[in-house]
Each structure stands twice: as structure tokens, then as C-alpha cells.
């Protein structure tokens, strides 16, 4: 087993770590934990990097933007299935706790909720450029690795990509949906995930929820 890599840095984002599996018009979410985006040192490099942690680690440490943290980790085994560069974090420490961020969202940059809250809220598609430019630090943004089963009768046929989503208030002024997502299927067929899917997933919430 490879030696773990030491790291430390300042947290710039805490978002849910969720994997999406698609099979034509069906989708399933796997709730893995959280992704910490950091500016700091990983091994011998000083740069921006991301660490995947479990829900237990987030529950214990309540990481939020501005915290100075440290630990050890491994590079992910399959970059297609993880939204972070590194995972299996251990020896986690909060070296310095930041003050609560100003209450003037968007974006929302406090301590993120537990994973059942994300599941209950539901998400809308989020334009990838908007996520990168405006929502990368927001607790309601999410960049998901997507595994697509092209033929359910031959599940070895798979494709991979990343999609971005928003779990935040529907009234957010920063939100941009971007183009609809298209999912390839068997024999060259394509299914399009239209707007009503998002509306149905978040219809139980008011505009400011």
C-alpha cells in the first residue's frame, strides 16, 4: 500500500461529495461525504488541491471555509469516480478555526448541512462555468462524477463525465442552469433530462428555501 501524503492548508470550499449513476432516464445518487478544497501544501507542492472526506469526519470536525487544517491522504484510485484529487484522509486536525463568515450570501459559505439534508432538498442542474466562477465556494454547489451505463443489458458499456448541480435557494441571483443534459443509450439512442425533472426534484421548496 502506498504511503499517505501529508498536507495542510486553508479551506476555501466544503461541498457534498456525491456520485451520480445514470442509466438512460434513470439516475441514482451515492452519498460519499464531502470535498474540501484547500490552498496550501500537499506533499512537497504548494498549490490548490482537493480532499475527499467521509461524513463522519465532517460531523466530527465541522470544517468550514477559512479553517486551517492538516492531515494525510492518498491519491484517488479512479479519477472518473471521484470529485476530489485525494481521499482516504486520516490524522485530520483543525489547526485554526475561522470566525463564522459574514451573513451576506450568496454564496453560502458556512458549515454545510448533513448529507440527508442535501438528499431531502433535491438539486437543479448548474452551468459548469457558473459553478467554477461563482459557486465553487458555496456549500450548496456540487460537482458530481457521473458514471453512465450505456446498455443495461450489457453493463460493461459505460461512459464517464462530470456534472454540476445546485442544492441552494431557487431565488439565488447567481444561479444559471446551463444547457440540458443528454444521456447516451443503447443503439445510439439519447435521452434528454428536461427542465421538469429539476422542477419536480425541488418543487417541495419555496423560492428562498
Task: Describe the fold and architecture.
With 209 residues, the chain is mainly beta. It has 4 helices and 10 strands; from the N terminus they run βββαββαβαββββα. The chain has one domain (5-202). Helices cover 14% and strands 44% of the residues. Strands 1, 2, 3, 4, 5, 6, 7 and 8 form an 8-stranded mixed beta sheet that branches. Strands 9-10 form a two-stranded antiparallel sheet. The longest helix has 8 residues, at 128-135.
How would you sum up this structure in a few lines?
This protein is mostly beta strands and 209 residues long.
Describe the secondary-structure layout:
Blueprint: E1 5-23, E2 26-42, E3 45-53, H1 55-61, E4 68-75, E5 86-96, H2 115-121, E6 124-125, H3 128-135, E7 141-149, E8 158-166, E9 181-184, E10 190-193, H4 195-202
List its traits.
globular, 14% helix, mainly beta, 209 residues
Secondary-structure-based class equals: mainly beta
Largest pleated sheet: 8 strands, mixed
Distance between the termini: 45 Å
Uncertain spans: none
What is the beta-strand fraction?
35-45%
* Mean pLDDT value: 95
Count of domain modules: 1
Order of helices and strands: EEEHEEHEHEEEEH
Amino acid at each position: 500500500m502506498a504511503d499517505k501524503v501529508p498536507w495542510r492548508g486553508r479551506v476555501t470550499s466544503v461541498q457534498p461529495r456525491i456520485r451520480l449513476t445514470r442509466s438512460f432516464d434513470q439516475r441514482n445518487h451515492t452519498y460519499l461525504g464531502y470535498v474540501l478544497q484547500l490552498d496550501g501544501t500537499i506533499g512537497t507542492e504548494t498549490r490548490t488541491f482537493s480532499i475527499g472526506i467521509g461524513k463522519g469526519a465532517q460531523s466530527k470536525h465541522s470544517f468550514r471555509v477559512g479553517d486551517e487544517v492538516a492531515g494525510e491522504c492518498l491519491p484517488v484510485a479512479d479519477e472518473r469516480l471521484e470529485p476530489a484529487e485525494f481521499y482516504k484522509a486520516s490524522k485530520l486536525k483543525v489547526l485554526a478555526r475561522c470566525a463564522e463568515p459574514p451573513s451576506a450570501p450568496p454564496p453560502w459559505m458556512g458549515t454545510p448541512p448533513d448529507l440527508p439534508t442535501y438528499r431531502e432538498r433535491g438539486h437543479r442542474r448548474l452551468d459548469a462555468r457558473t459553478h467554477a466562477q461563482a459557486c465553487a465556494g458555496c456549500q450548496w454547489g456540487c460537482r458530481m462524477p457521473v458514471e453512465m451505463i450505456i446498455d443495461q443489458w450489457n453493463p460493461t458499456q459505460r461512459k464517464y463525465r462530470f456534472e454540476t448541480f445546485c442544492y441552494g435557494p431557487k431565488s439565488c441571483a447567481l444561479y444559471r442552469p446551463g444547457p440540458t443534459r443528454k444521456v447516451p443509450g443503447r443503439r445510439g439512442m439519447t435521452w434528454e433530462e428536461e427542465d421538469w425533472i429539476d422542477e419536480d426534484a425541488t418543487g417541495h421548496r419555496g423560492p428562498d428555501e
